[in-house]
Sequence to fold (479 residues):
Amino acid sequence: MRDNPDRLRVRFAPSPTGPLHIGGARSALFNYLLAKGAGGDFIMRMEDTDRDRSSPESEENIKQSLLWLGITWNEGIDIGGPHAPYRQTERLATYHEAAQKLLDAGHAYYCYCSELELEAMRLKQIDRGETPHYDGRCRRLSAGERAAKEAEGIKPVLRFAVPKDEELLIEDLVRGQVVFQSQEIGGDFVIIKSDGIPTYNYAVVVDDHLMEISHVVRGEEHLSNTPRQLLLYDALGWIRPAFAHISLILGEDRSKMSKRHGSVSVVNYQAEGYLPQALVNFLALLGWSPAGEEEIFTMQELEQEFSLERVAKNPAVFDLNKLRWLNSQYLRALPKEQIADGIAAFLTDEWTEERRLLLAETLTNHIETFSDVCNFLPLVEGSEPLTCDEDAAAVLAQEHVMSLISSFAAKIETLSELTPATIKETIKQTGKELGLKGAALFMPIRVAITGSCHGPDIDKLAALLGKENLLVRLKHVRK
RNA sequence: GGCGCGUUGGAGAAGCGGCUUAACUCACCAGCCUUUCACGCUGGCAUUCAGGGGUUCGAAUCCCCUACGCGUCACCA
Fold:
């Protein structure tokens, strides 16, 4: 039935109803890695059948986020392919065609029930302690009754006639065998809405089949939808694809990742100065584990390493700590020019290229994301003295500090150019003259400049601060 | 509530009946290095696999029950 049944074809099919979620990104990544590793196809399809919530902005956001992560598709929206179009609202005729077959074969029927009627039915069922489900009342409508409803101007939905007592077995590649009973599905479900737009469960089946998808890899929230889709495949006489349901990503409190857990959109991480390689690496490790002991992988390595067999069944908690660590690993491997570019987004225009480079060099080992640079800005900008903590104050209280700082300041004053090298030299000179070295020499100077006992290299910080600001800070200490 | 899925340390996890007195990574703690911090290095961190029953010579690994967590029950995807 497929042109090439052996070819692995997967897809990422998001709804453009919001920015790309971290969970969606992981689904896309797993699909992408699977395709790349097997030399298969990765298809990008837009499931925009919810016309109220879908927006072009969301679609754009999803595409940009995917591209930023380095996930590209070789068939799908924008670039087309043999099964175009790839946007569901542009495929309406296709869905209607298949629906007609279902209708003709008696697998589907028109339903004229109003929202009110449906609601009343549901309430009654709940009252009786039953699970709410459509009772199939329109299933046996006579031609005459149908005509009457049509005459009233009621726009019907098309429902799928769910067979009784059928066992639906999903051979899931990550969860194993999962069984559902057809009568537990919740009644005859809608496949075409009254406005002629197909529902999710129906459109996915039609598209996945027509687009020759071999493996459906998606989030676990779709597992309970699968029996409906299985029924549809069978009724249409289509062979089922392989399924793999990957577990959800949880927030720190073990509930599904949502806005209250902080950043959930890929764009958030982009804006916060994370590196796409790090996010990809992190996402890959969420629910999948490598065979060896190495954990840092490039996209190319992941393509080789990834396999569905090593995908875990249990949900994974999103650990920002580890993401930050991974990001720092990638960040430190970057040439300083790229770090300078990365932190530029968090700096004012007053920062020249040269100073940005020096800042990048100074902070490389002290920041985990580009936005962390903001934490260090007070150290290297402005002349206001920084408040000291207890330890720092103790350092300044030492007897030799006044003469040390005075002597150091005097030497700085004579310096024509402040660079890390000249400053370091000046510190050493000062130490030599006063007979000081080690912590006794460096620590008071550090505290005088930064107000703290800890921080990046003092010579670099001083150079960034500039002569004027540096002298003001030193002067302040002597008061 | 019905149905489904899951449960190994603070987090990600390996483990697929004996090689496990449970890998590896993050976090944490200690030490070394360093002018400081960080980086880096070294070491520590689950006598135990949600709990309880079974099966077996032997179980984290197989079966059952209980508990807990999550997902899903739409003309939303």
